[in-house]
Amino acid sequence: MKDNLISSLCDGAAQDQTACQDLPECPSWISWSSWSTCSVTCGHGQENRQRSCLPIGAKCVGTESEFRFCQESVCPYWDEWSPWSACSVTCGSGTRERRRKCVKDGVIKAIAKEGFPSGSDLTVIPLYKSDRSANDQPNTKMRSITAQRSNNPLMSTNSFVDGNIPVVRIIRGNNSCTGNAVDSEQCNAGHCCKLSEWTMWSACSVSCGGGTRE
């Protein structure tokens, strides 16, 4: 009470403030970089982006890098072999062949909605060769499953994503299968017929005039 009374009798403020001088700048993040290209040209990969903390050497709260799941296309895969063709010869040794087709269509592309900090505990979402939309998938973690067709894997399942995949669309793959489209092997169609040497001519069919012999 006494201090207030004394202050009211004096001219000017009882307290004064001034800016602190020569203090270091508070650390802060600059904007995120653009997302990198996908780490693979087909199959599952990841893309990342970076940001820097300023001033250089300072420690900002948070992570300096993020990554998210990306899938450019399902890697092309070989379809089943066709049945073996007929042997190239009707007797003796020949060759036969079988063929297979490189499947490039029906490719799934999915983009994760959010980026994920590096080192996050993520599980694998299985994706399959189908037109099924992922919009109705529950926002839960899913366990890895390998989609297969007649023992040929359609796609690997080593992609990391947590939660819904909001975008799924079919695209065409531009890569090629590794290996041969045609396979061949030797075949044996059995023994070929072989004529023996001619026998001696038989006696003439008549004893005079015109006849035949064999």
Give a brief outline of the structure.
By secondary structure, this protein is mostly beta strands. It is 4% helix and 26% strand. The protein starts with a helix and ends in a 26-residue tail after the last strand.
Mean pLDDT: 67
Global morphology: rod-shaped
Fraction of residues in helix: under 10%
Radius of gyration: 40 Å
Secondary-structure element order, N to C: HEEEEEEEEEEEEE
Oligomer: single chain
Strand and helix layout:
Elements: H1 2-9, E1 28-29, E2 43-50, E3 53-54, E4 65-73, E5 77-78, E6 93-99, E7 102-103, E8 107-111, E9 116-117, E10 148-149, E11 152-153, E12 167-171, E13 182-188
Antiparallel strand pairs: 1-3, 2-4, 4-9, 5-7, 6-13, 8-12, 10-11
Structural features, described:
The chain has 214 residues and is mainly beta. The chain has one domain. It is built from one helix and 13 strands; from the N terminus they run H-E-E-E-E-E-E-E-E-E-E-E-E-E. It has one helix spanning 2-9, and strands at residues 28-29, 43-50, 53-54, 65-73, 77-78, 93-99, 102-103, 107-111, 116-117, 148-149, 152-153, 167-171, 182-188. Strands 2-4-9 form a three-stranded antiparallel beta sheet, with no helix packed on it. Strands 1-3 form a two-stranded antiparallel ribbon. Strands 5-7 form a two-stranded antiparallel ribbon. A hairpin with a 2-residue loop joins strand 10 and strand 11. The protein is rod-shaped. The relative contact order is 0.19. Residues 106-174 have low confidence and may be disordered.
